[in-house]
Amino acid sequence: MRIRIVDAFTDRPFAGNPAGVLVLDGATFPADSWMQQVAAEVNLSETTFLHPLAAGAEADWALRWFTPRVEVALCGHATLATAHVLAHPGTVRFATRSGVLTATTDASGLITLDFPAAPLSPLDADPALAAALGAELLTSVWTGPNTDDVLAEVADEKTVRSLAPDLGALGRLTGRGVIVTARAEDPGAGYDFVSRFFAPAVGVDEDPVTGSAHTALAPYWSERLGRTSLTGFQASARGGAVQVALRGDRVELSGHAVTTIDGELQVAISTS
């Protein structure tokens, strides 16, 4: 079976966020345990599996995402990587646990995802979370249900970039993960806010560029900055930019992708 590794939210290799992509030939998914084993073997933040749907279905493809440890309900970078692999001009529709999602590719190769905006629910200050992050939190909100993250704003961009959290403590304190964010320090840098994302509870210590986190970051920063179209920079070691546009209860996430590895998975599919 063919497997690709695609770097998402970047226009150059070895940056952005790598995802595994397996396009299945059949009309159903393999056994969950088999997909989880493959995702653990690939050992990237997410590996995505998809199979075609029949004509007349609500979507073109059924799509699922797995971290090395668990299946997740929403993933942006692996969806963008999948759209890149399909190389489908125009719009393709995916049936997922988070509803029907679309990816539209323009002539330049820019891919725009249409995702549900995460509802933001204020949280009381949690001294344990601040201690695990090693930073004072200005505000914190819950971003569930699809993402089940805590979004926390800190004082400045320097604080975001210098974080060295206690990952064991974070894994015990959060659902899927925690998004840490701040306003961009330099208005001329080409981005409006920065973030980092830690998800040790689901087997991802730090995710390089997290599309799904931007479904919460978009409404959060849109309210504070007074604009619906923004650019976020995820300040991981690899780094990557996500263009966001808030459209009511939906968020458009845009970026490029690059295939770095194209090979064969040398194991048989298991259906049980």
Summarize the structure.
This protein has 272 residues and is α+β, with helices and mostly antiparallel strands.
Structure in words:
There is one protein chain. This protein has 272 residues and is an alpha+beta fold. It has 2 domains: 124 residues, Roll (Diaminopimelate Epimerase, Chain A, domain 1), CATH 3.10.310; 128 residues, Diaminopimelate Epimerase, Chain A, domain 1, CATH 3.10.310. Helices cover 19% and strands 39% of the residues. It is built from 6 helices and 18 strands. It has an 18-stranded mixed β-sheet that branches. A hairpin with a 2-residue loop joins strand 6 and strand 7. Helix 3 packs antiparallel against helix 5. The two termini are 18 Å apart. The model has no long low-confidence stretch (mean pLDDT 96).
Structure keywords:
272 residues, alpha+beta, Diaminopimelate Epimerase, Chain A, domain 1, 18-stranded mixed β-sheet, 18 strands, 19% helix, 39% strand, globular, isomerase, Phenazine_PhzF-like
CATH architecture assignment of the largest domain: Roll
Shape: globular
Radius of gyration, in Å, reads 18 Å
Overall mean pLDDT stands at: 96
Give the DSSP E fraction (strand runs of 2 or more residues): 35-45%
How many helical stretches? 6
- Could you say what the CATH topology of the largest domain is called? Diaminopimelate Epimerase, Chain A, domain 1
Distance between the termini: 18 Å
Q: Any idea what the CATH superfamily of the largest domain is called?
A: Diaminopimelate Epimerase, Chain A, domain 1
Summarize the biggest pleated sheet: 18 strands, mixed
Would you report the number of β strands? 18
Measured as a percent range, the helix fraction is 10-25%
Give the tally of structural domains. Answer: 2
CATH class placement of the largest domain: Alpha Beta
Question: What is the H/E string?
Answer: EEHEEEHEEEEHEEHHEEEHEEEE
